[in-house]
């Protein structure tokens, strides 16, 4: 019998930041139908389960990254065929933002493959943020590690959200990344919170970690000083040329368990399917929605009309009776839009979402 005995929390029950590893492990070990029932119950106590947020991201600077994240095709040291680009001009970014708005987005996320922005980059990104904001869009960014001053400057420019992932469990971190420490991630998240921005923070599963380590990732996320507003749960996209190519694929049911546990631990966060979703069957995605996922990632596809993948998503929504999330308040958080651009930790390369924890 599981050590987790609590039935689903009633609406507006205070959020917990004191989950033990044993409690999280026990969630993973529940019989699959019981875990899904609990997660679905928590989901509907906090959200309309028929609504799914739709998110997109513009990669404003792709590839050439000095970090060594084992999953990432944008790391300069791996030969993945990704060409490094320079930072896009503000004009080009604003044009993409206009397109996103015309497609119905209310929020626009800009991602750059940097270890951290240089101080000289901040005014350029700040200009993008100001101009995107002037279009009437919410703004978000994922730029790598930030100092307190940089976070303050981005907030000052009007940045609403910042994405920065924990990647994996603290005890598995050094198996995947050697060019920074887990504590660096926590420090940046602290700077983002201190600057008054909302956080988007999750990780990647299927990188060879154990169930215990998946529990460790979720435990760390749920015990942050504030639950992230958005929690992207990525399924590794194996890219030829990266160290993690050829890794044994994660059991799809284990992925659903991870989604369900995230929903229970962080009841009022948006739990997002992002990188790796394109390779999932419709049935697996449906199970994820049942388990409490309520946000999906489109990459830059939203900016391309008539995209077959986008049409597949809309057809799936229709078959499942789901609809894009509308603007409404969720507790302290403002979520949603008709079609919505948001923070993700993925870059769209060659039309496919690639995980990036920048
Ligand atoms: S995940 Fe981000 S930080 Fe890591 S190598 Fe890729 S672009 Fe760089």
From TrEMBL:
PROSITE patterns in the record: RADICAL_SAM
Cofactor: [2Fe-2S] cluster; [4Fe-4S] cluster
Catalysed reactions listed for this entry: (4R,5S)-dethiobiotin + (sulfur carrier)-SH + 2 reduced [2Fe-2S]-[ferredoxin] + 2 S-adenosyl-L-methionine = (sulfur carrier)-H + biotin + 2 5'-deoxyadenosine + 2 L-methionine + 2 oxidized [2Fe-2S]-[ferredoxin]
Note describing how the cofactor binds: Binds 1 [2Fe-2S] cluster. The cluster is coordinated with 3 cysteines and 1 arginine.
SUPFAM superfamilies membership: Radical SAM enzymes
Chain residues that bind [4Fe-4S] cluster: 65, 69, 72
Pathway(s) where this gene product acts: Cofactor biosynthesis; biotin biosynthesis; biotin from 7,8-diaminononanoate: step 2/2
Sites where the protein binds [2Fe-2S] cluster: 109, 140, 200, 272
UniProt-listed GO biological process terms: biotin biosynthetic process
An example molecular function term from Gene Ontology annotations: biotin synthase activity
Residue stretches making up the Radical SAM core domain: 50-274
Keywords on record: 2Fe-2S, 4Fe-4S, Biotin biosynthesis, Iron, Iron-sulfur, Metal-binding, S-adenosyl-L-methionine, Transferase
E.C. numbers: 2.8.1.6
Task of the protein: Catalyzes the conversion of dethiobiotin (DTB) to biotin by the insertion of a sulfur atom into dethiobiotin via a radical-based mechanism.
Sequence similarity: Belongs to the radical SAM superfamily. Biotin synthase family.
UniProt-listed HAMAP family: BioB (MF_01694)
PANTHER family named in the record: BIOTIN SYNTHASE (PTHR22976), BIOTIN SYNTHASE, MITOCHONDRIAL (PTHR22976:SF2)
Quaternary data: Homodimer.
NCBIfam families listed in its UniProt record: bioB
Protein name, as recorded: Biotin synthase
Species of origin: Marilutibacter alkalisoli
Gene behind the chain: bioB
């Amino acid at each position: 019998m599981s050590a987790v005995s609590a039935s689903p929390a009633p609406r507006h029950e205070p959020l917990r930041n004191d989950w033990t590893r044993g409690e999280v492990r026990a969630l993973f070990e529940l019989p699959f139908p019981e875990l899904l029932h609990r997660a679905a119950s928590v989901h509907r106590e906090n959200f309309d389960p028929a609504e799914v947020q739709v998110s997109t991201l513009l990669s404003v600077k792709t590839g050439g990254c000095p970090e060594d994240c084992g999953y990432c095709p944008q790391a300069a040291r791996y030969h993945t065929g990704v060409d490094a680009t320079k930072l896009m001009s503000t004009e080009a970014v604003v044009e993409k933002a206009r397109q996103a708005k015309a497609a119905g987005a209310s929020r626009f996320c800009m991602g750059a493959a940097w270890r951290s922005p240089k101080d000289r980059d901040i005014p350029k990104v700040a200009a993008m943020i100001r101009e995107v904001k002037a279009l009437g869009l919410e703004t978000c960014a994922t730029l790598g590690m930030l100092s307190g001053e940089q976070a303050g400057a981005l907030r000052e420019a009007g940045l609403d959200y910042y994405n920065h992932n924990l990647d994996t469990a603290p005890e598995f971190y050094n198996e995947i990344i050697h060019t920074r420490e887990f504590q660096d991630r926590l420090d940046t998240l602290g700077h983002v919170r201190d600057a008054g921005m909302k956080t988007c923070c999750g990780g990647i599963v299927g990188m060879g970690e154990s169930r215990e380590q998946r529990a460790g990732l979720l435990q760390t996320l749920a015990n942050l000083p504030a639950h992230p507003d958005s929690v992207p749960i990525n399924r590794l996209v194996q890219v030829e040329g990266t160290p993690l190519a050829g890794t044994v694929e994660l059991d799809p049911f284990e992925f659903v368990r991870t989604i369900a546990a995230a929903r229970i631990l962080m009841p009022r966060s948006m739990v997002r399917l992002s990188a790796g979703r394109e390779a999932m069957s419709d049935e697996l995605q449906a199970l994820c929605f049942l388990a409490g996922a309520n946000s999906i990632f489109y990459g830059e596809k939203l900016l391309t009309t008539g995209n077959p993948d986008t049409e597949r998503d809309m057809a799936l929504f229709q078959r499942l009776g789901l609809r894009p999330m509308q603007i409404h308040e969720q507790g302290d958080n403002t979520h949603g839009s008709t079609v919505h651009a948001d923070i993700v930790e993925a870059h769209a390369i060659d039309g496919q979402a690639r995980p990036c924890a920048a």
